[in-house]
Specification:
By secondary structure, chain C is mainly alpha-helical. Chain C is built from 22 helices and two strands. In chain C, strand 1 and strand 2 form a beta hairpin. The chains are: A mainly alpha, B mainly alpha, C mainly alpha, D mainly alpha.
């Protein structure tokens, strides 16, 4: 830790690292959004991983060690994997080359450009105040303490949120029997799949619920 | 030259703008969703850098919450996209045309 | 003070009967006809009783009788406050009589009668309540309650191919007018700073510390044009002939006779005492717009081919006299305006009832297609003739009294001499021209062959509404003191409050010119 | 003190879990009765919240200032619980149209309610973010609950994309506000926010937070999701979205604008006025040509968001009280309308207005309910909608002398009201006077449905005829946040 700190605070090194990570993050983000070579979502997802990882590097430069780890674990480890999984599952091929809506493109670039311009002007006009010597350390212990004292209520609420998300995901991905609804709802195609009632899902949800609320 | 808050914030702004551009321009639902993740991450970066340079830890706690909520949102969102894909195999926003005037 | 006022019964009986009818099955035709007629009748009898017992000697400190004041929303200063003074006592009587006549005339409605009776009762109850109300909020609220059924009735039971267009136009115009007036009323409430919607209290507060002139001039146009649209003030009148042209007869009777007077009543009740300086400021403008009503609509009425449109336009033209009376801002003018309001209520209701009857019998109201009806329908023909005479302002009818009073009142304002001359010519000559033409074409001349089978023999029962309305016209025409005695003291109070704070030497001269007693009173 | 202050919320979450676990013990064909169990429990909680020295009457902040209990929170909590009760009634009627997962649906409704309850009490940006996300994510699932229906899924995906975009903006706004001021708590932010009126970054941050909240209430230009989602979602979800989610947006909007950053709010007053005017006009104009009833109500809900924004833009206590009053009237009115839609358009594939034809023969009760609800939405006396609009207009005109733009705003609001009369009247015409109704089979309305419709109608009349008590409550709530 000591050596890492000294490395991060070495002015020249940290400056170099900042520009390295920042450039890498932005380039990868740009390639997620608009890759001139491929319109395959898999490529976008892979560049998103890289952008996330280099952002974790920026977090390290900012002494947010816990968040850097969480960033890699949650984003690179879970979110992106989920994305890739879905892309593979759905066998989504390249984005079809459709007629590009020139007006939309123009409006999009213009509005985004305006927002960036506005931001930089804001930043320029009202300079942000920063403490003379940044000394805060984003280590696990102090974050945990804050999380369980001042922010304990939102923390508990987040557990409810995760429970809801879990229930929702399980419900949405369970397959239903072809049931009475087909008559009463419009646009219904005959349900695909075999009998797998949502009843069987509930044990999972409830155990998951209890683990979540305990965690 | 030392790296200060301004530099970090500029990176964050640009990241946010890139994400927004992706949401506006791309037509693939999954890529749009990835761009949204970029925008959330831009906010995270801004929060962490403010936290560092203002010597306040609150911001990092907020980032923690954002990451958690974003993970939940991604899970639900992807489940929705999969469910929709089962009904109609497309991931294009322009194909979401059942609900029109 | 807090026992239930007779006014609450007069307005409440129709409304609660309407609610009761909701639960009567729609195939019990006899029941809901009888119940509606009974409700309107009771309401009318109560109104007559109220009118007879109204006595200027027994008024309370604020000049009102039959007062009931129940707090409704304390925090906003809204209360259910009803009462009558000389200004609205006649209007309520007229409204109740017309409502009864309209209910009797509803026999012409053949489909969805239950809904029609419910709406008609709501309309009558709402407008009677609005006239009785002494609280700004309820004043507006009850008027709106009466207004909405009008749209539905015209839209559903209207006749002719222009029904949808007329419904659209009348809804749009009247909603806009009502909402503009609402803006003005809210502004008035807020500007007074009194935190009360109670009209007498508002008047007291504003008497103590009058509104600044610029504020008055700001609020007044809202009231003038909001109420003006409701009263078909020229040039916002185009909804009226069109709407009355397609409306079923009972709706047209109730709306043109009673509901339309709400805007005028609002100006007299609110604008004169609360915004006197703005009133003076806008006097000439109102007078010129009134001339627009009299001359333009008179001219349009001359050229109409449809009897209902003719009556509608002449009714709009009559509104001009009332506006002129209000604009004179003196005792005689104001009393005359109230007199015409009452008289025109009976007249308009009678005219529309008769044209409805003719339409029922002949299936058309095109003047060119009618003729010789006097022979076939002697009773109705006679009545139509008398209504036309009343419309021209012949002595013996209540309209004559009102119009003459207004002319005297306006003549006493030197600035308005020219306008009076114009109005006199317009009112007399144009009115006489179109009325005689209509009478000649409809009642006399050759009878078209297709009407040979029409029989005029109607039961006595169905003659009641026409007879009742004509009798009222003649009664107030021959004995105007019945009304003027009641109106004068309150009109004097209103003009006095307006005169005390007038500005400018010309207006000073005017107040001296105005005698304190009406020459027609007694 | 800390845990006792959230007793109500704890019970609601516990109820949600019980409803979910009840799956084990309840036979599939009896599951719809779980809704009634939930209704009974929530009614109990609602009554508890009225009992004088109950759980909710201890006003003050807890959890290091992140949770506040004040009259406004209490007002909105009762509103939310009431709407959840009515939505559960509706869901029980709607249950035969869900493929499965009835108990999940009920429990998700209750969890969304929990999110709303926390939103009503949120007193810092973290609580704001987490509670709003709890509501939104729950609604993604609730919207897609008819997962065999393409429209439902499409609506959910549209809601998802735009909702995620809005939360990205909101998070960035929170980052900027916190970064410049260093405060997350609304009360401490209020003390320093005056210094940041000229700080562009802080202003941008507040604007972004407004974007996020504007999405929740479906104000222009963040309204694009509303018609699609209203049309596609299952009807009980639509009703909950129309009242619960919108009210949650408004309670947070009121807290942020008037508790956290009052100084900056004055800076944005022109923006608020313009937004409100455009929202009213847009919603009303787009609602006119609609044939689909739910879509029409979606546009009309945009217009109502505009009316409600009038009360916010008035920047005074009477405006805030008017917002609360209007929302409580809107609760009964809009629930009644959706209830009728859920019952009548059961077998009509496209939920068009013409599907209401002949309703007065099929079920006079439902016809009368729909008429009353439309009349109230149009703002015609003597119903709840009229008094609400009256209060909003009064609040706006009150500010007129200070700024003449308010008069223009009042005019635009009136114009909107007039436009709206035409399309609400269309619905009434379809019910009573359509030419040849295709289907004249009588509709039977179950006992609980009759009961809840009666509650709605009684509420509409009660708020229109006896506004005193609710108005006083709303006024005390509004004065509490000053």
């Amino acid at each position: 830790m000591e050596s890492l700190n000294s490395l991060l605070d070495g002015t020249v090194v940290s400056t170099c690292l900042f520009y390295l990570f920042a450039t890498f993050t932005l380039v990868c983000a740009a390639l997620v959004v608009a890759n001139p070579f491929s319109r395959n979502p898999v490529t976008s997802a892979m560049f998103l991983v890289l952008a996330i990882i280099s952002m974790a590097g920026l977090f390290l430069l900012l002494h947010a060690f816990f968040l850097a780890a969480v960033q890699i674990l949650v984003y690179a480890g879970a979110v992106i994997v989920l994305f890739l999984f879905v892309i593979m599952l759905l066998e989504i091929k390249e984005e079809l080359r459709r007629r590009i809506n020139l007006f939309g493109l123009f409006a999009g670039i213009l509005s985004v450009g305006l927002i960036v311009r506005l931001f930089l002007a804001c930043l320029h006009q009202s300079p942000v105040t920063s403490a003379a010597n940044p000394s805060i350390e984003g280590d696990t212990a102090s974050l945990g303490k804050l999380l369980f004292t001042q922010f304990v209520l939102p923390f508990e609420l987040v557990s409810v949120l995760l429970l809801v998300a879990m229930v929702g995901v399980i419900y949405l991905s369970s397959k239903d029997s072809k049931s009475r609804i087909s008559a009463s709802s419009s646009g219904t195609e005959p349900g695909v799949g075999k009998e797998s009632s949502a009843v069987s899902q509930s044990p999972n949800t409830s155990t998951a619920a209890s683990t979540q609320t305990k965690h | 030259m030392n790296v200060g808050l301004e530099q970090f914030l500029t990176v964050s702004f640009l990241l946010f703008a890139l994400g927004l551009l992706g949401v506006i321009m791309r037509r693939n639902l999954l890529v749009i969703y990835m761009s949204l993740e970029l925008m959330l991450n831009a906010a995270n970066l801004a929060l962490v850098s403010f936290s560092r340079f203002n010597n306040k830890l609150d911001g990092q706690v907020v980032v923690f919450f954002i990451i958690t909520v974003a993970a939940a949102e991604v899970a639900v969102g992807l489940a929705l996209i999969v469910a929709l894909f089962r009904k109609r195999p497309t991931a294009h926003v322009e194909d979401l045309a059942t609900l029109k005037l | 003070m807090n026992n239930i006022s007779i006014l609450t019964y007069i307005a409440g009986i129709p409304i609660f009967t309407a609610l009761f009818l909701l639960i009567v099955p729609s195939n019990y035709r006899v029941i809901f006809r009888a119940v509606s007629v009974l409700a309107a009748f009771v309401s009318m009898i109560l109104a007559v009783g109220m009118f007879c017992h109204f006595n200027q000697a027994q008024v309370d400190s604020e000049g009102f009788r039959f007062v009931q004041d129940v707090p409704w929303v304390n925090s906003l200063g809204i209360s259910y406050h009803v009462g009558v003074d000389g200004i609205n006592v006649g209007l309520i009587l007229m409204g109740a009589i017309v409502a009864f006549a309209a209910t009797l005339c509803s026999w012409e409605i053949k489909n969805r009668e239950k809904e029609f009776y419910i709406l008609l009762l709501l309309m009558s109850g709402g407008i009677l309540g609005a006239f009785a109300s002494l609280d700004l909020f309820f004043f507006y609220f009850l008027h709106e309650l009466a207004l909405v059924p009008t749209f539905i009735m015209i839209g559903v039971w209207g006749r002719g191919d222009r029904k949808n267009y007329a419904t659209f136009q009348i809804t749009l115009y009247l909603s806009i007018g009502a909402l503009i007036a609402l803006l003005g009323l809210i502004a008035l409430y807020l500007q007074s700073g009194a935190n009360t919607f109670d009209i007498p209290k508002l008047i007291d507060v504003i008497k103590a510390n009058p509104l600044p002139v610029n504020v008055q001039n700001f609020i007044f146009p809202f009231l003038l044009f909001g109420f003006g649209i409701l009263v078909s003030l020229w040039p916002f009148h185009s909804w009226a002939p069109l709407g009355y042209g397609v409306a079923p007869a009972p709706t047209a009777m109730l709306h043109s006779g009673v509901l339309k007077k709400f805007g005028l009543y609002g100006l007299i009740r609110l604008a004169v005492p609360l915004l006197p300086q703005a009133m003076h400021h806008w006097m000439m403008a109102i007078a010129w717009l009134a001339i627009g009503n009299i001359l333009y609509n008179g001219w349009v009425a001359m050229r109409q081919r449809d009897l209902n449109l003719l009556i509608g336009n002449s009714s709009v033209a009559h509104m001009g006299f009332i506006f002129l009376g209000i604009a004179s801002l003196n005792l005689i003018g104001l009393s005359g305006a109230v007199l015409i309001m009452v008289a025109h209520g009976f007249l308009a209701a009678l005219s529309f009832a008769l044209s409805g009857f003719i339409y029922q019998k002949t299936g058309t109201l095109e003047i060119s297609e009618l003729g010789g009806l006097c022979r076939k329908l002697p009773f109705v023909g006679t009545l139509l003739l008398m209504a036309a005479m009343a419309g021209c302002g012949l002595p013996g009818f209540a309209n004559f009294v009102g119009e003459v009073t207004v002319f005297f009142g306006v003549w006493s304002v030197p600035a308005l001499h020219f306008i009076v001359t114009l109005a006199l010519w317009g009112g007399l000559i144009i009115g006489a021209v179109y009325m005689t033409r209509a009478i000649r074409n409809v009642l006399h001349g050759p009878l078209p062959t297709e009407f040979a089978q029409i029989s005029g023999s109607t039961s006595l029962w169905r003659k009641i509404p026409y007879a009742l309305l004509l009798a009222s016209l003649l009664l107030f025409g021959c004995v105007p003191s019945l009304l003027t005695d009641k109106i004068n003291p309150d009109a004097a109070r209103l003009t006095a409050s307006a005169q005390t704070r007038k500005a400018g030497p010309t207006l000073m001269a005017m107040s001296q010119a105005a005698p304190l007693k009406s020459p027609l009173g007694n | 003190m800390n845990s006792s202050s959230i007793t109500l919320e704890i019970w609601v979450i516990a109820l949600g879990m019980v409803l979910m676990l009840a799956d084990f013990f309840v036979a599939p064909d009896r599951k719809r009765y779980l809704a009634y169990a939930g209704i009974v429990a929530l009614t109990g909680l609602l009554l508890v919240s009225f009992s004088g020295d109950g759980v909710c009457s201890i006003f003050g902040v807890s959890f290091s200032g992140s949770f506040v209990e004040d009259p406004m929170a209490l007002f909105f909590k009762r509103l939310f619980i009431g709407s959840a009760i009515l939505v559960l009634f509706m869901a029980a009627e709607f249950s035969d149209r869900f493929a499965s997962g009835l108990n999940e649906y009920y429990s998700l409704v209750v969890f969304a309610l929990a999110g709303m309850l926390f939103a009503a009490s949120a007193n810092d940006f973290v609580m704001l973010f987490v509670s709003i996300e709890l509501i939104t994510i729950t609604f993604y699932v609730l919207t897609s609950f008819q997962k065999n229906r393409l429209a439902s899924l499409e609506a959910a995906v549209k809601y998802l994309i735009l909702g995620a975009l809005a939360s990205a903006f909101m998070v960035f706004g929170i980052a900027l506000i916190w970064g410049t001021s260093g405060e997350l708590n609304f009360n401490s932010l209020a003390q320093v926010s005056g210094q940041f009126v000229n700080n562009k970054l802080f202003l941008a941050g507040s604007l972004f937070v407004l974007v996020g909240l504007g999405f929740k209430i479906a104000a222009f230009p963040f309204q694009v999701w509303a018609p699609d989602v209203y049309q596609g979602a299952p009807t009980p979800t639509t009703a909950f979205l129309a009242i619960g989610s919108k009210a949650a947006g408004f309670v947070l909007l009121l807290r942020v604008l008037f508790v956290a950053i009052p100084a900056v709010t004055h800076h944005w007053v022109h923006l608020l006025m313009a937004l409100s005017a455009i929202t009213i006009l847009y919603g009303n104009l787009c609602a006119m040509p609609q044939r689909n009833l739910k879509r029409m109500l979606g546009y009309s809900s945009i217009a109502h968001a505009g009316y409600l924004l009038l009360g916010v833009a008035a920047l005074n206590a009477s405006g805030q009280a008017a917002v609360m009053y209007y929302l409580s009237g809107y609760l009964f009115t809009v629930t009644a309308a959706f209830f009728v839609i859920a019952l009548v358009l059961r077998h009509v594939p496209d939920e068009n207005i013409s599907g209401l034809a002949g309703l007065n023969h099929r079920s006079p009760l439902l016809a009368a309910t729909m008429t009353i609800s439309m009349v109230s939405l149009a703002g015609i006396p003597p119903l709840a909608g009229f008094f609400g609009k009256f209060l909003l207009l009064k609040a706006i005109i009150e500010q007129g002398p200070a700024h003449h733009g308010y008069y223009l705003l009042a005019f635009i609001a009136l114009l909107g009201v007039i436009i709206s009369i035409s399309y609400y009247f269309n619905v009434i015409r379809a019910i009573y006077w359509s030419r040849d109704p295709a289907d004249l089979s009588p509709i039977t309305v179950s006992g609980p449905a009759k009961f809840s419709i009666a509650i709605c109608v009684a509420g509409i009349f009660w708020l229109g005829l006896f506004p005193e008590s609710v108005l006083n409550f709303a006024m005390s709530a509004a004065s509490a946040i000053k």
